[in-house]
Amino acid sequence: MACYIVTYDLNKETTRPNILKDIKAYESWAKLSESSYTVETSETPSQVFNKLKEHIDSNDNLYIISLSKPYSGRGPKDVNEWLESTLAG
Q1: Which structural domains are found in the chain, ordered by start?
Q2: What is the pTM for the complete model shown?
Q3: Distance separating alpha carbons of residues 63 and 9, to the nearest angstrom
Q4: Among 18, 25, 48, 87, which residue is least crowded by beta carbons within 10 Å?
């Protein structure tokens, strides 16, 4: 399965709970920052985007970016462990 970074910027904050619900519906995910998550799925980036785009409007941003090893970063232990065990590379 592939891993993607899902990053968004919602200017209409009332939609945040809706997009989070759909991101967290993926079987495997981790929170990278306030509006960046990573998900593991058999879907393509376009399929993930199409699933989440209903929560954005014309002044919002949403990107689905492939993620694999090597990577570099620092964060919570549980996120670091998720990345190490999940990412291919």
Answers
A1: 2-86 (3.30.70.240)
A2: 0.89
A3: 9
A4: 25
